[in-house]
Amino acid sequence: MVKQVICVLFAASLLIFLPVAASGNLSDNPETWCEDENFYEIIAAMEAAGIYAHFLEENSQRYEDYHAEYPDIAFDRVIAFVNVNVDKENYSDIQPVPDPEKITLLVNKQFSLPVDWSPSDLVSIDNDVNVREEVAFYFELMKTTMSEEGLSIYAINAYRSYSAQKDVYDRGVERWFGAPDIADQQYARAGHSEHQAGLAIDVLQSQGLPSMWDAAFEETSQYEWLKENAHRYGFIFRYPRGYSQYTGYNIEPWHWRYIGVEAATRMYEMNMMPFEEYYGRFLVPGVLENVRAYIQEQQELFRATQAEAEPEPPRVTTETPPPAAPNSDVEPEPAAADRTLSRILIIMGILVVGIPAVIIITKVINKRKA
Ligand SMILES: [Zn+2]
After folding, report:
1. Cβ partners under 8 Å of residue 6, min gap 6
2. 254: CA distance to ligand 1 center in Å?
3. Ligand 1 center–CA 191 separation, angstroms
4. Ligand 1 center from residue 8 Cα (angstroms)
5. So what's the architecture of 88-274 in CATH?
6. How far apart are CA 14 and CA 7, in angstroms?
7. What confidence tens digit (pLDDT) does each residue in 149-179 have?
8. Model pTM?
9. Residue 118 Cα to ligand 1 middle (Å)
10. Spacing, Cα 195 to ligand 1 middle (Å)
11. How far is the C-alpha of 265 from the C-alpha of 267, rounded, in Å?
């Protein structure tokens, strides 16, 4: 509960001090860190301290093996790719997509969507193709901006059901004379397409162009614009040239995937490709646990340092008398030393005033007698 309150307060303060937060400053006090709000900053702090947040103990041997096979790939990227099973043969050890509802889900030749799964919030866009509501909103926004700059763009394909994807793949195999090896480079098998997730759109510069125009899209100003600006609307270039080792596909300049503005912008700013790397770094189960463990460790360290630095509080002893209760009718007992002092003062007073008085009185009586 306390932690939630702190998180909410911190989130509110982020809104006020967004420019500071955007610059990636992490507070010096780990007590204020939140695994959600400061997720990426904490990961950066961990890396600065020589810890990879995405290093998962159970994969350590596979990291070594993949790194030995591809020594040119930096080790932090090796970790990310192995985390999403890039080191395994395509379609050899298929895992279910953990949460098909998530905008940032990863579906590829290693991860599959359930047979009967389709998004519940599909809406139609250009030429009557469907995407999820959020995707439609940002696509329309992007399209409007592009048209203001004199660039036209149309959604040619979007959502495809499991069975529709099966038809596409089967036709692809037929086209390549029953050779799945070649078909697999171009078509996703059923359950393995981003189109089933309702998060992908194939775009072209005009409607009604035959599919042979797909590759030519790479030569258009629309494509250049998308590469520089699509992230502002949550879209990423999903299958860039030179990344088929990780994505399983050759370049597809027409295929744009929605992952949300925040993630897409982060990928753009980190100059990170492909999405497999982003997912393997930040989104695989286990990374969040590592971040949480690091926060806890830093908080404990911080508390220990604080305790050492603070001065000792004054010691309470039994010799100190308890303070008098306010408005009490009972006079406090004077201390023994005080009582002795007052007796001495009374005796001295009697001696100082009394002796001269006796002398004066005696003299007056003697005068009268005389
Ligand atoms: Zn596509």
Report:
1. 31, 32, 34
2. 7
3. 14
4. 39
5. 2-Layer Sandwich (3.30)
6. 10
7. 999 999 999 999 999 999 999 998 998 777 7
8. 0.77
9. 16
10. 7
11. 5
